[in-house]
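Entry:
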Amino acid sequence: MSRYFGVLFTLLGLTAGVRAEGNPERHLAATTHLYLQWDGMEAHRGASAKTALGKILEGNTGKLLSGLLADFKGNLPNLMSGASLSPKAQKELLESAASFLPVIETLGSHGIVLGIEVRSIEAPDVQLMVVCPGAGKNAKDFLKIFKLAAALNETQATELKIKDRTIHEWTAGPVHFNSWNEGEDAIFTIGLKGAADVVERVGGKENLTDNVLFKRIRGFKEFETSARGFIDLAALVKLIQKARPEATQLFEVLGLNELKHLTYFSGFEGPAGRSLIEVQGIASGKGLGKLLRGKTFGIADLPPMPADVLSFSATRIDCGALYDLALEVAGAAIRLSNSKNAPEVKDIAKAANQAVGLDIRNDLLGSLGDLAVVYTSPSESPLFRMVLLIRVRDSNKLRQSLDQVIQKIATLAPIDLRTKRKNYLGVEMCQTIVTKGKDTPPICFAPTYAIHKDWLVLALYPQPVQGYLLRANDQLPTWKPGPTAQRSLTALPKQFTGLSLSDPRPTLSNALSFTPLVAAAFQSAYPDSWFDASLVPSAYEITQHLFPNVAVTTEKANSIFWHSLYSVPLPVDLNNMDTATVITCLVAITALGKPAEKTFKPVGEAPPMNQFRNLVPLELNKESRGVGLNASSLIDIFGPVFQRNMTGSSP
């Protein structure tokens, strides 16, 4: 998660300029509970250029993105014919069209500072403040965007004079939106208090620069950072306990009553992006601390995985302790609800034991060890290829418990479940078959497990289990870290309580292999447009700079740390991209049939915007006048740009 901010930050910095002077944190309250700052790209341009993502953006990818931004800027003034917005909103949008790119460039150049202060939970009082350093020079552009937001919510900004400041404010229900300039900085706030209260708290005797957590993260020197932040967990816990004293027991069960803070750092280390998250104050002997903190392990402790493994994650976990914690949390939640008819947790656990015919805690979970590994490999299954391995403490007891559970499930399930046992390399494999019903299609899963060499291996098909057995008997090659992965592992702690590795190269290569097809088809459909298929980079141009993303979890004293080194910050884990690709292809094939004849017109004509609106069934805030636009409104706004961009004519 910590690396995902890099996507947004890098794109904002494509046209970065000069870093603003000053200390924008002085505008935030000393009691800020959440703080996040990004420096902008210019302050770290040299370090950023050395990273894999920086090298990718130096080629055709950067040119394509810059071209798209420039084209977007050039077409924005031609918006609006046919948009279903109020006349005032149309007027504001036309006036602010040329301001979008200067605002993005300013943010990319000077960075951004964000702070959230929770003053009260009982009588809700929360304020978000965003400071844009150096944005005062583009004050008119920021103000136009602010007024546009008001117009799109069918209201207008009011100009106020407070303490020698010119404040612009608009409201949406109980929420107040404020904007003004403080020296060279632009400030935006969202909260439940009006402008007078907000300004009163700015520029006081104490501000965020006096905050102990702020001083702590400012002193961080482990690696070059471009973004940093904190969450004051102790203060938030106190606020919650003050508002709901009965929640104290739940915090104690979870082991969170001694929480201190979370700190976050993101930056660079050679060709890699690097991040570090620390959570301080998780008690080791109870609650979540008992689960998250345990005996460390290393690469040598991992089970034999396929040589072509795309990604894996290994972590210490005590299944018995997890079960105990779940019961304790359920009990605390029942007591918190004050429900007189709620059953006792011990009665629920007893009923579950009777249903399966064994002691779940001691017989089943107690037979498992404290290390779990999940991996995906393209060679073992094209779809749904996740494989789970859990270290085993008592193989015989676990085998008997699993047999008992499967038999009970088969008798209780409303469908026909059958088990098939097979000896493979001297090891018993147990396969569960879901038989096809009279009115149901065949089921494409055959859940299978085996226990061998102190590991329980489970998969949705027999083949991954067979693969594990072959590797465990030295009949197939196993995964070993390559040079780039080893470099990252060498730079990180050698012993850990959690380890994850994900190689983005095969997945991205597979996804990017479709782009030439799409680009050529688009160019064929719109030959007179600005688009050139050769601007789309080849898959190799992008993936040649990439290497596996590695993250480890460690602990020290009463803190838990998450370290990561990565080549490209992806917003999701794409280790199952093959599944997504197949589904996407099926949808695309269907869409390119007869429906496409109605959606797309011959060369020279643009697709009618109402067809694109029909492709977006979900509308957000359809009936609300709150903050935000629905999908149809967005198409109404940007549809004309697309249409003019493609053909030079109005819809």
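Confidence is low (pLDDT under 50) at residues 1-21, 575-586, 589-651.
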